[in-house]
C-alpha cells in the first residue's frame, strides 16, 4: 500500500502555488498571524520564500531543497517557514523585494528572505542551489550560518535589521518636493524618446540585446509620441520602432505559431528561444498594442495577431464562469510516461516528428516537395535542432526546434514555386495538424487563480480589439469578464474590490476563508478596463461602476501629504513599508495608469478635482520624470495627455442608427491618445446626462447623428459628416 503523503498547512489554501508546496517536508505556514505569533513565542527567525506557480526556478528550488527531508529538517528546527504567492500578495512581495534589490543589486523569484520575529529583513537573495558549489554558497550552508548568527549575535542582527528598515523607508519615499508642479510635457517626452531610441535594436526591434521582453509600455509611449509628432522625422522613427518591434515579435519564437498567444520573454536578441510560460497580463496588453498598430497602419497582419492572441485566451485561459486564469507554465512532461518535466516540452519539435506529421506531396510545387519541406523551410527547422546550445544551459532543447518565421511568405512561395495564396492555405493546414498532434502531449500546469488586476488588463485587450476591429464578439467577451468581476471580485456591501478568486471543483468559483482585499493595481486596471468597455459597448453601467471605484481608490490609497497613491492600504500592521511603485515593468506602474484614469473620470463626471489629482501625481514623480523618464514611459505618455487636455468626442444620435454607427466607426478607426468617446442618446434621465448637464444642450442637426468635439465642456460647432469628424480627431 502507498504511504500517505505528508501535508502541511498550505493544504488549506486556494493559491495553486501554495498548494504545489502542501506536501513538502517543510512545515510551511501561509503569511499570517499564526506564523508571526509562533516566531515571537519561540523567538525564532522567519524564513520567507516568495514565488509563483509558473516560475521555473521556483520549481527547481522546490525539487532540490524544499522536497529534501534533510534540508526540511534544518528549516523546521531553526526557522518559522512562510510561503507567499507573489501574485496573490504583491504587497508582501514588494516590501521584501525592495530589500533584496537594495542589498544585493538584483532580484527575482524565488525570493528567499530571512526576517527577525518582528518581520524585519536582514538577509536575502533569490535562488540558492542546495549544496555549496565553486562560485556559490549552498542553501543548507546559508541556513546553518544564519541560525548560528541568531544564536551567537542576536542583538547585532536586530540592530542591523532596524537600520536596514530605516534606510529602506528613506530611500523608497516618493513625495512632492515643495511647490513642485507637473513637469513640462515636451521636454520629458523628447528625453524619453531619445533614451528609448538609443537602446533600440535596429535589426530585431525591442530595447535590449538579451533577454528581450515585450515591454508594451514602451510601445504605447512610442505610438503616442508619433501621434503628437506625425510630421517630424522623430515621429516617423517612433512609429517605425514600434511597428518593427511588433512585427519581429510576431515572427519570432516568443509567439506560439501553433497554439497562439505570446510567451513571457525571449532569451536571445532575435526573439527566437523564449522562456515558455504564458502570462495573462502579457496577452491583455499585447492585444491592445497590436490593435493600436492595426488602427494606425491599417495592416491586416496586426489584426491577425490580435485575433490569434484572443483565440488563445478564449480557449486556454478562460473559466466557464467568465473570468480569466493567470498563467500557463513553461515546464511540462515531454510524454505521458516521462518522470521529469522539461522547459518548452509542450511547444518544441524535432525535424523527424514534423516529417512524419507532414508527409503529403504538394501539388504544383517543385517535384518531390512535401508539406513538411515547405513548413520546415518557412519556420527555420533544422535536422539537428535550431536552438543555440548557449541558450540551453540544461540541454532541455537539444535536437529540438523552436518555430520562428524566418522567411517572408513571398520568398517561401518562390522557393517552392507556389502562389502566395496557396502557401497561406498550406501553412494553415500544417498548423492545424501540428495543433492536433500537440494536443496529445501532456499540457503544462495551468494557474487557475483569477486576479482582479490582470482580468482588468485582459478586459481592456478584448474591449479595444472589439472597438478597433469592429468585432462585437470581443466586446461581449469583455462584458462577460466585467460581469464576472462584479459577481466574484467585488463586495457590494463595502463597495470594495477583492484581489483574487479561484477555480474550484466542477467549474465553481471559490474564495479564501478571509478574502484578500484589492490593491491599488486592482483598482487602476479595473477602472481602465471599465472605461475601455464603456467606449466599446456604450453601456453606461460600466461607466457608473468605474466612477464608484475611482472614489473608493481615492479613499483607500491617496497620500494627502506627499501626493500620488500608495500601492497598499495603511491598515495592515504586518507590512513594514507603504510603497509607491516608481518603475514601469511587465505591467505599467499603477500611478502611471491612474493619471489617465483620473483625466477620463473628470471628462465623464465633471469632477474637476480629479484633474487636479492627476497633476499632483505628476508633481510627486516630477524629478524622476525629468531625469530618467525611460523608467516611466506610461507616465510620460500621461504627462503629454495631461498638458493637452482630453477631447470629449460627443455623438448625439441613436446608438443603433446607421448614421451613428458610421460616426462611431470613424472615431474608433483613428488613434488619438487624448480623446474620450461618449454617446448622448437623448435619455435625459440617463447616468451621463446626470453627470454632465451640458449634454442636454447638444442636439442632432437636421435629424442626423451629429458629433461635437468638446474641451473642458466647451463644444465645437456640430459636425454631421464622418469625413469632417476624422479631420478634427487628430491630437
The top level CATH class name of the largest domain: Mainly Alpha
How are the strands of the largest sheet arranged? 1-3-2-4-5
Q: Give the terminus-to-terminus CA distance.
A: 73 Å
Secondary structure tally: strands: 21
> Into how many domains do the coordinates divide?
4
Main sheet: strands, sense, barrel = 5 strands, mixed
In helices, the fraction of residues equals 40-55%
Please tell me the CATH architecture of the largest domain by its name: Alpha/alpha barrel
Rg, rounded, reads: 27 Å
CATH topology of the largest domain: Glycosyltransferase
* Uncertain residue ranges: none
* Structural shape: globular
Give the overall pLDDT as a whole number. 95
Domain Spermatogenesis-associated protein 20-like TRX: 7-168
InterPro entries: 6-hairpin_glycosidase_sf, 6hp_glycosidase-like_sf, Ssp411, Ssp411-like_TRX, Thioredoxin-like_sf
Protein name: SPT20 protein
Pick out its properties.
731 residues; alpha+beta; Glutaredoxin; Glycosyltransferase; five-stranded mixed sheet; four-stranded mixed sheet; 10% strand; globular; 6hp_glycosidase-like_sf; 6-hairpin_glycosidase_sf
Outline the structure in words.
Pfam families: Thioredox_DsbH. Residues 7-168 form the Spermatogenesis-associated protein 20-like TRX domain. This is SPT20 protein. It comes from Loxia leucoptera (White-winged crossbill). There is one protein chain. Strand 20 (706-711) and strand 21 form a beta hairpin. This protein starts with 15 loop residues before the first helix and ends with a helix. The strands form seven sheets. Strands 1-3-2-4-5 form a five-stranded mixed sheet, sandwiched between helices. Strands 19-18-20-21 form a four-stranded mixed sheet, sandwiched between helices. Strands 8-9-12 form a three-stranded antiparallel sheet. It has 731 residues and is of the alpha+beta class. It is globular and about 85 Å long. The protein has 27 helices and 21 strands. The model has no long low-confidence stretch (mean pLDDT 95). It folds into four domains: 10-172, Glutaredoxin; 185-193 and 211-235 and 249-258 and 265-315 and 447-569 and 579-644, Glycosyltransferase; 347-441, no CATH class; 649-729.
